[in-house]
Amino acid sequence: MADREGLSDGFNVPQVKDCDKMSFWLSQAGWERLRDADEAGTMKTMLGKGSDVDPLVTRLLSDSYICFYHEEPSSHSSNSSSNLLNNMIQKVVKPLT
Hints:
The protein is mostly helical. It has one domain (22-92). It has five helices and two strands, in the order ββααααα. It has a two-stranded antiparallel ribbon with strand order 1-2. A hairpin with a 7-residue loop joins β1 (2-5) and β2. α2 (28-40) runs parallel beside α5 (81-92). The longest helix has 13 residues, at 28-40. The relative contact order is 0.15.
């Protein structure tokens, strides 16, 4: 993750932060938890203020200007991880408004 730092002196330098807890959310179990929350209508509660999810993870998953790029799945790999990623991106990565 990167935030801009140092605007007062005319510089706009990105400050990079480690988001080590993101690996769980990119795993099969993490995607399933996101899918279940989306289907139950509890996504905003799960990722909202006061939740137990790391704020950097919440920001990465919910900021509308962040894009995830993926490879289009081929027709012969219907159960591939890129299919799962594609489906979850369409359902999960949207602003929490």
